[in-house]
Design a protein that fits this description.
Blueprint (H helix, E strand, L loop, with lengths): L1 H38 L4 H22 L4 H25 L1
Length: 95
């Protein structure tokens, strides 16, 4: 029982700081995907998706830069992933 508790505590100690360090990586992925979407053929439909991706990317950056608690970092990662999804959809539709 003691070993299980110690393992659980150690995993929390290791996983918690990782959220703060994954924000820049996920944000960079979103930026790269948006650039790729912009480089492709754009239509009014894909332009709207790219604009939406940029909106979520800006929100992700805001959450990361102004993070006060772990949830803010989680919100940044989530919004960056949503931005990536919108950009990927624009890439798919442009093909």
């Amino acid at each position: 029982m003691g070993r299980i508790l110690m393992a659980a505590l150690l995993s929390c100690a290791v996983v918690t700081p990782v959220l703060a360090f994954t924000c820049p990586v996920v944000i960079k992925q979103a930026e790269d995907t948006i650039k790729k979407a912009e480089a492709g053929k754009t239509t009014p439909e894909t332009k709207a998706l790219i604009d939406e991706a940029k909106k979520y990317l800006a929100e992700a950056k805001g959450h990361h830069e102004n993070a006060k608690v772990k949830r803010d970092h989680g919100d940044a990662v989530r919004k960056a992933k949503v931005a990536t999804a919108f950009a990927e959809e624009a890439i798919t539709l442009a093909q």
